[in-house]
Amino acid sequence: MAAVMNTSPTPVAQDDAVAAVQADPWLIGALRCVGDAVVVVETDARVRYLNPAAEALSGWSLDAAKGRPLAEVMRFEVDPSARPADDERDDAIEHGLVLLGRGGLRTVVDRSAAPVEDELGRRRGAVFVLRDATERLRREASESASRLRGEALSRIGHEMRTPLNAVLGFGQLMQVRACPGRDGGGCYVDHIVDAGRHLLGMVDDLLEGRHDEPGAGLRVQMQPVDAGEAIGAAMTMLQPLAEALGVEQRAELPAQPAHVRADPRRLRQVLLNLGSNAVKYNRPGGRVRWAIDDAGPGPVRLTVHDDGIGMAAFQLDRLFQPFDRLGREASGVAGTGLGLVITKGLVERMGGRLEIDSQVDRGTTVTVLLTRA
Fold first, then answer.
1. For a pLDDT cut of 70, what percent of the chain falls above it?
2. Would you state the pLDDT for residue 127?
3. Is the dihedral of CA 157, 158, 163, 166 positive or negative?
4. In this structure, are residues 363 and 293 in contact, taking their beta carbons and an 8 Å threshold?
5. Residue 155 host element (H or E)
């Protein structure tokens, strides 16, 4: 750091500034405790005092630095322009300076300076304060990335909504023309419309743009939901994928409806995410078994079990890390590493809990526990 101090003759002894500091034990104790680096210099711009934080940032000990030029002890990658000691902007903060410490240490800091004067207004020296800006820069980068991500999601959501509305519109026309009597059963067009509405709801969630953590800011409309019907709807939507991959789906549902407290759309999304993983990470000829356990007074347990490749203990430890695909990036299975993160957030948003048990080559069992309605 280059600093040009007022070096005109002065009656003040060069040790006055540090003597003033050391004369007050309360002050010296406070300087030792503060997290910011504090450097005291005399009017000759030589270092007279470093607190422990300044020693850590610069790599210089107080004994080694004392008496050395400030520019030698506090060196910067791009030397900031020096200001005279009587500059009225002495208390201005300079951001993002790269401090070059001893031993090759490089730290981005924010720096401020202020003159030290006696009761007669005579300049005795100056105090420099440096703050490690690493955390500030990390926070600003995170906030910027979050803002850009929100803007991108908003644009994507708007672009997706228009064709989705068209798909739904034409699907509803096909319902009227292709399924007039329903023949006592369902119609495949109904599944198209149903899936389109579900996807449109997810797009609306993107457009809300109010949640940084998956599931944390989503609105939920809690009501009694037939868990068996929810599982049946999820199985229907996943059936084309299951058939394409040679996976069989089976359901073991109670004779009587099991009702849970949930948001119908969020529960469907949870079951689709879990069922999709169970199908995609299965093996040809494998099975996905859906079950409901509503015995006893506790929560209702909705279970999805697959015969797939399973997960090791170290993978289970990383299971809910966003964008972590647990080493399966080259598996050929499409994914982003967000499905289970979102699912966990949605389940917790509905007051439930997610439990996962898995063994390598033996498959995975995921259980959603929800309050009985």
1. 75
2. 92
3. positive
4. no
5. helix 134-178
Q: How many CA atoms lie within 13 A of 188 on its CB side?
A: 2
End-to-end Cα, the chain, rounded Å: 68
Average pLDDT, the chain: 80
Separation between Cα atoms, residue 371 and residue 373, nearest integer Å: 6
Higher pLDDT, 297 or 69: 69
Q: State both tokens at 368.
A: 């959603």
Residue type, 310: G
Contact 304, 247 (CB under 8 A): no
C-beta separation of 322 from 337 below 8 A: yes
Q: Taking a C-beta distance cutoff of 8 angstroms, is the pair 270, 234 a contact?
A: no
Assess contact for 111 and 1: CB atoms under 8 A. Answer: yes
Quickly list H helices, 224-323.
Answer: 227-245, 264-280, 313-317
The residue ranking higher by pLDDT, 179 or 51, is: 51
What is the C-alpha separation between 349 and 229, in angstroms, rounded?
21
Query: Is the whole-model pTM more than 0.70?
Result: no
In our burial notation (b when 16+ CB lie closer than 10 A, e otherwise), range 117-131 reads eeeeeebbbbbbbbb
- The yes-or-no verdict on residue 47 having pLDDT over 60 is yes
Pairing of strands 106-117, 123-132: antiparallel
How many Cβ atoms sit within 10 Å of the Cβ of residue 76? 16
Strands 47-50 and 37-41: antiparallel
Check: CB of residue 76 under 8 Å from CB of residue 98: yes
